[in-house]
Amino acid sequence: MNLLHDALLWLNDPYNWTRTDGVLDLLAQHLRISVLAVLAAMVVGVPAGALLGHTGRGGGFTVALSNVSRAVPTLALLTLFAVTRIGFGPRATTIALAVFAIPPVLTNTFVGFRGVDRDVVEAARAMGMTGRQVLLRAELPLATPLMMTGIRTAAVQVVATATLAALVAGGGLGRIITLGFRQQDYGAVLAGAILVAVLALLTEVALAGMSRVVTPGARRLPRRSSASAAVPVAVPD
Known about the structure:
The chain is mainly α. The protein is built from eleven helices and no strands. The radius of gyration is 24 Å and the shape is elongated.
């Protein structure tokens, strides 16, 4: 309880939020790294998954690439980048997190496109649609739910893992945790962990709402009131 009390005191101190390299500054850095990493993963993963799913080829390659990418620790990539021209800093963290985010985006996009009913595809082709039109107008809307699930999963993972940026001078909310350990201020450590957890939850909620908005389909119709349901309908003789 004392540790939680210390964490709440730390979070309730306005100075910790507004000072230079405070929570607001670090939050902006954390979001910038995370957004760039997820966008980079989408630029690579969505077109590749859509093309492979549309053609029906490369399923084994997609699964193998996804498994291999997930097996590579992000911290190992950051250590590897340190001895290359990439070096330390936000750029190294963004690249490592993008590599980390590609597998769920690529896999879910591929599965979403492969899961489209073949009768729908054949009907679209019978209407004279070109391959590109079938991809964009028939398959993409139906694959959107799974594709958005992959993006949401990747985004939450990236937000949580971006705390590693503090280990390579990359900024972000992880600096609160590492600085707390260095100063043996475990209330600050817990406060930093709470901030990251809340940010990950907010990311999940925001992207779940966005997924609902962009997913095509009939909207839920309002229920009829009991009064209107009870009105009899006259049938002419």
